[in-house]
Design goal:
Distance between the termini: 13 Å
Number of helices: 12
Largest sheet: 9 strands, mixed
Structural class: alpha/beta
Helix content: 25-40%
Shape: globular
């Protein structure tokens, strides 16, 4: 049996971030990462569909401690995967990862002041046990095994092929094929121009439009700074600060003056689409009721204008052997249907969580500072923003975790647990009150609850969270600390 101070679950963007902060900030804690996949990268190792890229700018999607030195506003999947792997290697993290391990259960014992975690080696089926003083969940919030795939009317009649982007076949050749992409979110708008470039005859079929904005593929400020030979770290800090401010300004405008924000967004789209019907690009909801989608150099608009791809806004009446009949009576012929229909939400990779023999139902717990769960000791949970780059919040959560560990050491504590009071819990999930996207609505059944006040209230505001997590008092009267005799602690990193 292996024992470590900190057990991190997940070697994606969040998990490598937590480990990097432990190393960089001299927490003096041994750590181990359990990663189900065979490589570093998490989401960016799983998703391999054509055109896969970030949907946030790389100045804010990159780690705050490791500048992203490229000029691309939105980086592609392979480059992001390489960036995460390089970060792990540079910080000496890779040798502390056990690949191919799926955590199935994590059990906390107050008497022993430690977690006992069971993980399955998926190559052999063997069950391994790791104990740890602290558990860091960095698995994101969706099911890697199953993307969301609704039952489609008459789909059994279709003689073509269904493909979900989450499990894109390596050998899929779309050249000369009639491809219908179902969906209007970030995945769909990425796939359409990428499939058209591969020679497919593509139609994007959406039930309702999404807000889409075009940005330059290369950041003009970043390009100018590189030409001026401004040091990378200085350029990164300036670009990051600018983009965080722009993100917040855009979101606040959308919340405070939705009619004005809608007018501005649609005017920009109108300038891009030419003679295309604006009903395909005019959502029925307000900006930022769902996440805003971004296209580099207007690539989606360009392929639609040129006729290299088409767009249809309609509902499916039924599938036919050769395609889809729409509610309007129109028919779309298809050889391949790509179901870009979203994610299935899942917490902690589906593992069971227990505290002193009692199962923890995550949905019944309220989140503390967006990083811990009430009533769950020595546990941190890394979840990114819904209205900005994921990594901004992941970085803050990891920094806070290191502050928390330092506070425990300074005062001789071994355990810490946030304790919610009456009235701290709202009926909404941590995302359900903010966005109306399908995957968020479906995730209400498993996501933890939103708080009503103070550190329990998740408002997705980087500037507020920065003050809360970086400089706010650790002992704020909400956390409960304790000392436990003879707590076992590893004194050296365990690989």
């Amino acid at each position: 049996m292996t024992h470590v101070d900190v057990l991190i679950v997940g070697a994606g963007l969040s998990g490598i971030g937590v480990a990097s902060h432990l190393v960089r900030e001299g927490a003096g804690r041994s750590f181990l990462i359990l990663e189900r996949r065979a490589a570093i990268g998490g989401t960016w190792d799983l998703f391999r569909y054509p055109g896969i890229r970030s949907d946030s700018d790389m100045y804010t999607f990159g780690y705050g401690f490791r500048p992203w030195n490229g000029t691309k506003v939105l980086a592609d999947g392979p480059n992001i995967r390489r960036y995460i792997s390089d970060t792990a290697r540079e910080h000496g993290i890779t040798e502390h990862i056990r690949f191919g391990r799926k955590m199935t259960a994590a059990r906390w014992s107050s008497a022993e002041a430690r977690w006992t975690v069971e993980a399955v080696d998926e190559a052999t089926g063997a069950v391994e046990t790791v104990t740890a003083n602290f558990l860091a969940g960095a698995t994101g919030y969706y099911d890697y095994d199953r993307g969301y795939r609704p039952q489609l009317p008459g789909e059994e009649r279709f003689t073509g092929r269904f493909v979900h982007p989450q499990h894109w076949p390596e050998d899929l050749d779309v050249r000369g094929k009639r491809v219908v992409v179902l969906g209007s979110g970030a995945t769909a708008i990425t796939l359409v121009p990428a499939l058209a470039a591969r020679g497919a005859e593509v139609t994007m079929l959406q039930r309702s439009p999404t807000y889409i904005t075009a940005l330059p593929a290369d950041d003009p400020v970043a390009v100018a700074l590189k030409k001026a030979r401004v040091p990378d770290r200085v350029a990164f800090k300036a670009g990051r600060t600018r983009n965080i401010a722009l993100q917040r300004a855009s979101y606040r405008l959308s919340r405070r003056s939705p009619a004005l924000a809608k007018k501005l967004l649609l005017a920009a789209v109108r300038a891009q689409v030419g003679d295309l019907d604006m009903r395909h690009f005019t959502p029925s909801y307000d900006p930022w009721d769902q996440r805003l989608c971004v296209v580099p150099n207007g690539d989606l608009f360009r392929v639609l204008r040129s006729g290299a791809a088409r767009i249809a806004t309609d509902r499916i009446d039924t599938f036919t052997p050769g395609g889809i009949r729409l509610a309007s009576g129109a028919e779309l012929e298809a050889d391949i249907v790509v179901t870009a229909t979203g994610l299935t939400v899942q917490m902690l990779g589906g593992a069971e969580l227990e505290v002193d023999g009692e199962p923890v139902v995550v949905r019944d717990r309220v989140v503390y500072k967006g990083a811990m769960l009430d009533g769950v000791p020595n546990f941190v949970m890394v979840l990114g923003y819904t209205n900005a780059s994921w990594t901004l919040k992941a970085d803050l959560a990891a920094e806070y975790f290191c502050r928390l560990l330092a506070h425990l050491d300074e005062h001789g504590y071994q355990t810490v647990v946030p304790v919610a009071r009456d009235g701290d819990r709202s009926p909404h999930s941590i995302m359900g009150a903010a966005l109306t996207s399908g995957y968020i609505a479906r995730g209400d059944a498993v996501m933890p609850r939103q708080g009503t006040r103070g550190p329990w209230k998740v408002i997705n505001d980087y500037f507020r969270d920065r003050a809360f997590l970086r400089t706010g008092p650790v002992d704020d009267g909400v956390l409960e600390f304790s000392r436990v005799p003879a707590v076992r602690r590893a004194t050296a990193p365990v690989s």
